[in-house]
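QA checklist item 7 of 12: single-chain prediction sanity check.
[x] sequence parsed
[x] length recorded as 580
[x] structure emitted
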Amino acid sequence: MKRYSKFLTYLKPKIWYLVGALAAGLLFGASSGFGMPVIFDKVLKRIFLPEPGVTYSLWYVFGIAMLIPMIFIIRAITGYLSGYLMSYVSLDVLRRIKQDLFSRVQDYPLSFFDKHTTGDLFVRLTTDTQLVQNILLSFASEMVRQPVQVIGALAFLGYMCITKGEIVFLLVFIAAVPFCIIPVQMMRRNLKRCAKLSAESLGAIAQHFNENLAAAHEVRVFNLQERQKKKFWDMNINFQRLILKITQYELLQQPLMEVLAATMVSVTFVYAYKVKIDFSTFAAIGLALYFTIDPIKRIIRMVTDFIKITPSFDRLNEVLDYVSTVPEPKDPVKIGALRGEIEFKNVNFAYDDKTVLHDVNIKIPAGTSCALVGESGAGKSTFAKLVMRFYDPTTGSITIDGVDLKKMRSYDLRKNLGSVPQYPVLFNDTIYNNILLARPDATEAEVYAAARAAFAHDFIEELENGYQTRVGERGDRLSGGQKQRIAIARVFLKDPPIIVLDEATSALDVNSEAFIQRAIDKLMHERTMFIIAHRFSTIRNVQKIIVFKEGRIIAFGTHDELYKECPYYKSLYDKQATSQ
């Protein structure tokens, strides 16, 4: 029950709708399970077995007979209200779950995405929530009506058996009911296991499909089409087998329950004949049996459906219950515009069990432009991500202007940050809106000025729709250099005191790089800037250089100082200079 408790909290805003649905469901169940057999018994007795010497008028018979459609009218109204209100509540709950799921994913740190693939998360947000929604809709319309109907029918059976002196019949019937649950109990474990495996399999299929689309270039260059088809085929076959197993378990339950129900009815026939129960009483009992067995079958089916979606609940809870590794402070320090003095104190950082930064101690004055150099995997990108608080250090502390990052709200910190990744992502929107997202309140003139500063204005104007040109999914309608210049324009528009550039000019041609380098040089003034450098030509004008080796900072200084005093830096620089 613990896995469902979180979802019950989403019911609170619609509690009165739920109460109304429950009340309607109670009336429906009572009118079906108890009302129908009682009315049926009374009508048959009054019309077909009148008291000796009693003759009823046609109008009286008509009035008695109309009790049957009256019960059906009550069932229809209460059934509709119960079903509609419960559907409304369940749909609202699912809407809130989806929104909460999406909202939480927005706030989770990058470490969350290191453990969850985009394809799997997409399946959780769409398929898993859809499965839960479908079952809740089915469950919502039946959760009150069917149990109450069973209770009502059993109450009538008890009433009839007691008044007729046939307690043994009632006890035998009650003892036989649990056998209808046997099929579920027998298959529950395997059904739950297959449901979990099928959910995981569907997530893997979605991830493979997502990777294939993202790697369309590589698939064709390396002739991976047949290999990709084969892998997708195997995954589909596995998913199909799991679904077929689930289907088998579901299909076996229905005939087993029907055989048990038919056996119970047959026993009732024999018993009624033996004790000479009159036809009207037998017909009422038969109707009560129907209103007992049919809802039991529906309840068992609901239980089966819930078993099927248990893995979906678990997968959704895994996201909703995720404990952020970068938590927001309970009492955040209020900060405005930062100056940008950054200090690492005894910082260590590890991805799972792999330590990638060791005992980092460095103080960077505000307004200092720094290049991060070193071989791949030396810790440059991790250092920059820690500055932006995408991760928290395993041990040690990082401060900006003397305030620990853990004491700042992430929103306040990132208002002071600008970043251009090596492979920037553009949203499938216009160029203008892609630049504007850096500062939504900016004027048109400021957007154009930012584009000019990034040397993007001229190529944008040459496009058919200019700034209103849609860039396509991930910006695929633009070249790599064009995407990077738009990403740089965002930084110019935001104008933050702290900037991180991850080889921001790597995709530009020689002429564009020269212009961008001049723009970056201008942007450096009075800003703390980190440039993750793979080419030394992009860092010639920085004030300081931080040298990384095997997760440690081994040197910090100007180019001239490091070239003379740091053999490792000198070897890196000379190696690249001779290769050009």
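[x] summary fact logged: The chain has 21 helices and ten strands.
[ ] second reviewer sign-off
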